[in-house]
Design goal:
alpha/beta, Aspartate Aminotransferase, domain 2, 2 domains, Aspartate Aminotransferase, domain 1, homodimer
């Protein structure tokens, strides 16, 4: 398996401690999740019905401010797995560095894959991929710049896994145009990555193709029950976005005395330039805080945001050691 | 979407009533499910780790009496969606009539699909599909007869979605041989279809290919938590198998006075030959019991097994009308 955040089992194997004792900041998953509440027995027992899946789609359209065709899937990752089937194989260009699943999945399916460093360089691709805001460096692209690129590529896939707290960055409201495909993650902003829920939004033909490849019951009953509630809870989303914005500043301030500089970030994670990221990761790990390093970038350390006050305190203590 | 059982929303639209008031016998899902219990917050919030997924695989190997390579998926259906990718497209033969997803999924992916009526007629196919016990007619094939077919086909896919209560019919213990792929459903026998959990078992190369296509987080944290518990609970499985065997006899006896004859069945459903299945379905529906009919077979009515005593009583009342 490729290297990912959230691999807390590796941290435990190396540094010990029960999983519950660790603070996992190796991902960009909100640590103050949407309340799961009671799941009705029906959602565990029955196959999800078309009406239930359609209600989930409507809730997602509400949250994502779009009226475009949409399909629920087992996480944004499930949509990424299907990208090679979107079009006849050809030339894919990926705005890099970014999430490390795109290149190998497309390559394995016979696509010619090129990683490029600037938006302009995506032009001419049969399939162009932009993560916006980008993971891990938080780079953002204005919707108008992305729309300007659309006529110059076959497909433009915008992975908006980290956009929820900065909705003005999203292109979801423009979805429905041919060639534009938006991927959304539910689990990161709502702090429920274990639920496995995400969405693809786009032109009816493409969404139909993705839905057909996903099958009649692509998500669980619990994902439908919780997703329908969470995606309609505007007050929670607003309060969470505001809290995350404050917490980003708090984290940036906390690490500053160590001399780390901010490479960039989205509202769910911060990427810092350090002298030695592996050394920093080990230091955190001895305090049972897990962070993310990048084999190709030995000075980069990515930290998710702590949730509760005790988590912030532990982070401060470890930083002070 | 293709016609399936479990489409209770259609029944409600036609016949009214709240979903909770209906007894859904249109599927082969156990109506006395494995107890869901408490789901630890961790399983909702975190991405499933490799260790957790491996623990689920071990629990499934235990339940299915196999040591072969295995991969967890979002239901047996998720494995079916990937079948076209198992081998270069060619000639698929399906032992029919059977579950109605195989033929269209393979056809849509460019396979030449032929439905055949006898096991022998599968020989010569690049991909042969047998549902064992079969849905909807309960036909069973002895493991030795299936193994004898193996050298005469490219791939032999055995869908064992309904085998749990009759484990001697399963070929899972023989899995691992090249060309043999076993699909298992968790949700039917354990009565938790909304959880979306199933498994593919087979040769390491094929399981590796399916795992790669499924991505790093193919199932939810809840599916891992509940699956690990349920698949290790031998006492529950044994008691449930015995109860289902008794309940099959009870249902067959109950419908006999109507003159219906048993076409066949598995421990989770019964298929009856009736004078007019649509009329029977309507009669049941007016008592808010939903059943399954088949457009191609106007005399076939499939009934799942009621769960609680009140459900059995309501069925008896409706039958007596």
């Amino acid at each position: 398996m490729r290297e990912h955040g959230g691999n807390l089992d590796h941290a435990q194997q190396r540094f010990g401690g029960r999983a519950e004792a660790w603070i996992d900041l190796s991902t960009g998953i909100n640590r103050l999740p949407y309340p799961v509440g009671e799941i009705d027995a029906h959602h565990w027992q029955a196959l999800p019905s078309r009406s239930e899946i359609e209600a989930l789609h409507q809730a997602a359209r509400h949250a994502y401010r779009t009226s475009a065709p949409i399909v629920a899937m087992g996480g944004a990752q499930a949509a990424i797995q299907l990208l090679p089937q979107l079009a006849p194989r050809g030339r894919a260009r990926i705005l890099a560095p970014t999430y490390n699943e795109y290149a190998p999945i497309l390559s394995a399916a016979g696509w010619e894959v090129e990683e490029v460093g600037a938006l302009d360089a995506l032009a001419g691709a049969n399939l162009a991929i932009v993560v916006n805001p980008n993971n891990p460096d938080g780079r953002r692209h204005a919707p108008k710049d992305l729309l300007a690129l659309l006529p110059h590529v076959g497909y433009l896939v915008i992975d908006e896994s980290f956009v929820d707290a900065v909705p003005d960055v999203s292109l979801a409201s423009e979805a429905g145009e041919r060639g534009l495909l938006i991927l959304r993650s539910f689990g990161k902003f709502y702090g429920l990555a274990g639920l496995r829920l995400g969405f693809a939004i786009g032109h009816a033909d493409d969404i139909g193709k993705i839905a057909a490849a996903s099958g009649p019951w692509p998500v669980s009953g619990a994902a439908i029950a919780i997703g329908c509630r969470a995606l309609r809870d505007d007050a929670w989303a607003k309060a969470t976005s505001a809290r995350l914005a404050r917490d980003c500043v708090r984290l940036d301030d906390m690490v500053q005395p160590r001399g780390w500089t901010l490479v960039g970030g989205a509202p769910l994670f911060r990427l810092y330039e350090t002298a030695d990221a592996l050394a920093a990761q080990e230091k955190f790990a001895r305090g049972q805080i897990w962070s993310r390093v990048f084999a190709q970038k030995p000075t980069w350390l990515r930290l998710g945001l702590p949730g509760s006050e005790p988590e912030w305190l532990r982070l401060a203590e470890v930083l002070a050691r």
